[in-house]
Amino acid sequence: MNYNFFSPQQICFGWDRFQEVGPLATSLGKRALIIGGSRSLESNGVIEELKRLLLRSNIESEFVRTISNEPEVADVDQTTNLLHHLGAGAGDFLIGIGGGSGIDLAKACAAMITNWESDTVLDYLEGVGKGLQLKQAPLPLLAIPTTAGTGSEATKNAVISSYSPAFKKSLRADEMIPNLVLCDPKLACSVPPEITARTGMDAITQLLESYISCRAQPIPQALCLQGLKLALPALAEAVEDGSSRNARESMAHAALLSGIALANSGLGMAHGVAPALGIHCRISHGLACAVMLPATLKTNLSVRQKEYAEITRFIAPERSFTEAEAAQYLIEHIETLNDRINIPRNLSSLGVTQAQIPDLVASSRGNSMSGNPRELSDAELTQILEDLL
């Protein structure tokens, strides 16, 4: 057995722990540069409370911007320029607060502000641009997730999009894992049901794909089992009762574990296709993963039946199954959960057309797809997507 394991330097998890942000952040620097991932964080006073709590610990802060879309190349470049104008450098740290979009933008900018070989993030992205490497350590980063989904607070990459040309690629380096994660499930209580459903299924997809990945590792697999045991019963409750402390805590913990798992073990087909659905069809990441997950599980059943059964026996130890029955139970359980939280069963209901499938197949060949336990030809992937229309 031979593996490496990556995780944030410090994780602070718990209900109402947002109030501790000031003392926790003192180890990162003297001035906080804040990037938000939702306008509601401004309107409901969370950003102002964050600034007040920091000031109480003698940390100055600047609110840089909010991003309400998945970050694009221009967003990273423009925000990095704003940070330059604010004189960002030694003694400063970034705070990414929000969902995956806000945290990813903060992670990308923390890296770009210290790496000057190019003035555009495009040249550092995997598979596009000039292939430049991040040579200087990013500014310190505090991640405060307010949705339970992407696990970006615990990963070593930031996903950046472009629509002309169309791609979704990662800025990646081991040093991009946030220095400190402050995860307060209470912050997610105001997230609407539809967003709760989609982000929650992203976390569940990450847990499942990391467990069955061809790069799966023992520590992440243990975390995946724990995350699935928490998330599978909690997600519908979080969607139907957003104020449920038990459901919000379970989903926040599961999403955090999913980020740690994917940072170490990779993902698979659902996350391979999801970026393509995002850039060609403008489908949100969580929704794309949710729709693709049952097909992903069915596609990999022939090579991962044993692992599916392991998951089922962990989440439902009271049931008596053969291995084949246990594996099938997992697939049906995911389909039932999707139905309950109003996730569509097909791509055509999201506006995907037959004419888009060649582009979707071509754009699905990224790092995530390389983790899929079954190697899929273009013809096989085309057939899978056609069957989902």
UniProtKB/TrEMBL annotation:
Residues 8-185 form the Alcohol dehydrogenase iron-type/glycerol dehydrogenase GldA domain. Its EC number is 1.1.1.202. It comes from the Bacteria. This is 1,3-propanediol dehydrogenase. One of its GO terms (molecular function) is 1,3-propanediol dehydrogenase activity. PANTHER family: ALCOHOL DEHYDROGENASE, HYDROXYACID-OXOACID TRANSHYDROGENASE, MITOCHONDRIAL. Keywords: Oxidoreductase. Belongs to the iron-containing alcohol dehydrogenase family. InterPro entries: ADH_Fe/GldA, ADH_Fe_C, ADH_Fe_CS, Alcohol_dehydrogenase_Fe. Gene3D superfamilies: 3.40.50.1970, Dehydroquinate synthase-like - alpha domain. It is an enzyme of class 1 (oxidoreductase). Residues 196-387 form the Fe-containing alcohol dehydrogenase-like C-terminal domain. CDD domains: Fe-ADH-like (cd08183).
